[in-house]
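Teaching assistant's notes for section 4

Start the section by putting this record on the projector. Ask students to predict, before seeing the second block, whether Serine/threonine-protein phosphatase will look compact or extended. Collect guesses on the board.
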Amino acid sequence: MANPDQKRLMLKEMQLESLFETISAINANKSEEDLYTIYKLTLSSNPSITNLILFVIDEESQEFERFVNYGSHDHDETVNFPKAFKDYISTTNIINHPDGFEKFDTIIPIKHKNEVLAYALVGTADQHSDFIDQGFTEALSNIILVAIENKKLARKEEKQKEMKKQLTIASHVQTMLFPKELPYGNDVPVSVHASYMPHHSIGGDYYDYIPLSDTKFLMSIADVSGKGVPAAILMSNFQGTIRAMARRGTDLESIVHEANYQILESAEGENFITAFFMEYDMETSNLRFINAGHNPPFLYHKNKFSRLEDGTTILGSFSELPFLEVGEINNLQEFFVFGFTDGFTETYNDEDEELGDDKLEEFLTANIDFQQKEMHKNLIALLNTFKGHQAYADDITLLSCKVDLSKK
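Reveal the predicted structure now:
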């Protein structure tokens, strides 16, 4: 029979071999589950250790969860980490035992960069107490937990890289959604200008100008609920539907019905879109429009403003739109339409006051004779002054259209 010194030597040899095996497993990129298993088997093979639990902090909940469990203690009573154990900041003997933890005598906080990642609880048999090596237990715990923490960080970095890649793709997709050129100038019958300020790298706003013939065009502005990649994809589907049907000569009502159906199919009711569509024919001087739950654009005609409100509800919430009214104005030879998304009017200042539609109308009235680019520039400057130290809460899109058939 081996004497105590021989037993200690055998234990040291076993511990050294275990460390080599553990490091080899880490270098072989073993899974977290495998590393926890190695940890459990290594420590439980020491006859001095009769009970073992490893509580590891969860990144999201910031609560300690049990990942390793061994021994004769009541396994049901030791599922949750006792709050009293958080007071232990160094390896020490347990003084006050919470219910279910009476068979544990040592607590070992496992730290990484001064933050406690885990707590190892160890229970020993009295007859083997001489052979407990707390230093080894702590070293093994540190090696395993740091390796697992590195795995978590690697996953997080990989996830961030993938997210960045998706955002880059989505940003590129969104850029492609906007028309490359808009008719603009002081000597053309139709002049269109747009300003777009995304709140994040990927916004949820959209605008478009689609020539339908030499004398007819469709203009639209929209805002999707939600942000990021899903919003960009939904807007891409929305734009594809609108452009495809418009260029086939589909009437405005059918375009809106089909857009509603496609949004509902794509988003499954989780997102919706507010939109405004305007169709103008220079040959007939006829303006037709549908407002689908969007902020009503301003129409300036014969020295006064009105709002373009006729239409329907938001798109993507109902399988069939509950109502649909097409607004129509005849004999429009000269007019100005200004559309915007709610990110503009719902901007707040330091006094918690909202910019609102009234201030926007006051500005448009005072600046109606300005060129559109200058008007947009001044309007954004007004907004920046108004908001003070407050951040923009949403994407902002401004879209204006000036028609003067005398310049044909």
